[in-house]
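INFO worker-7 received task bundle
INFO bundle size: 2
INFO processing item 0
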Amino acid sequence: MENVTLAEVINIQVMVESQAIEIYSIVANAIRFFIKRYIKMTNKYLIEGFEWFDKINGNSYHKANITDIKTNKLIYSSGLCYGYDNQYEQTAYDGLIELRLANKEDRHNHAKNKRRFIYRKTENCLKRDLKQDEVTE
């Protein structure tokens, strides 16, 4: 066994403490980041799009549902609407305007909308999946 001086023990202890403080700082910053992200998430809406393709007539239809993430309640359901691709986003935004939760001026500002809303789309649904859901109060 080696003889270790008191100075070496103190140096080792200081190194360990500084590494612990650095790790604590990293963990604290990560926690702050996730808390900020969670707070931002609670002010958002989940916009779900469901798309069905009518093979007989060659048309696409969609339904848009809006769920308030904070309360986890469905606040809008469009029912069957004509349109394909990302048309459900426009339908949902029109629903938000109708509910007075969004500005009419921002209707076509999709870059701004992407930060405020969480979008999720389900393709190849059945026609019965596009019926209007009951909105919870």
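INFO item 0 finished
INFO processing item 1
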Amino acid sequence: MYRCQGRRGPVSLRSRFRDAKSFHMLDVSKHSTEKASPVNEDLQRTSAWDDYRSRRRWFFFALLSGTPVVVLTSILLNKMFHSSGPFYIVGLAWMIFFVTVSIRLVLFRCPRCRRFFFFTGYSSNHFARRCVHCGLPKWSEADIKE
């Protein structure tokens, strides 16, 4: 039975609802011990790879566009303000953006084991083609167990 803490001690969740229909409408999927259906796992895996693809695109955008954007913006702002200060401001903003995007890419979680895909607590492989924990191949659509 699902229980929660009330003001007067533990209370059954079922007693909080007048009819059984509203009780069963409660989302208790986080606490469920049943395995998710294969269709849901495939959808989660696909959306996880879409998330990774997005993170990777942002990383390469930051990597490749950084120098030209910083230089052009600094030249324009330097002509407007007659100072080299804008170069440092734009450069610092780009560095913060690049570090944020890089960390976000590296912290991608494996769709199968939900651990970090590219590193363990003591080692990392930023170019890994498989999860360093469970061995799931990158871009895998099916659950491949070896």
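INFO item 1 finished
INFO post-check item 1: The beta strands are 3-6, 9-12.
INFO post-check item 1: Residues 15 and 21 are 12 Å apart (CA to CA).
INFO worker-7 idle
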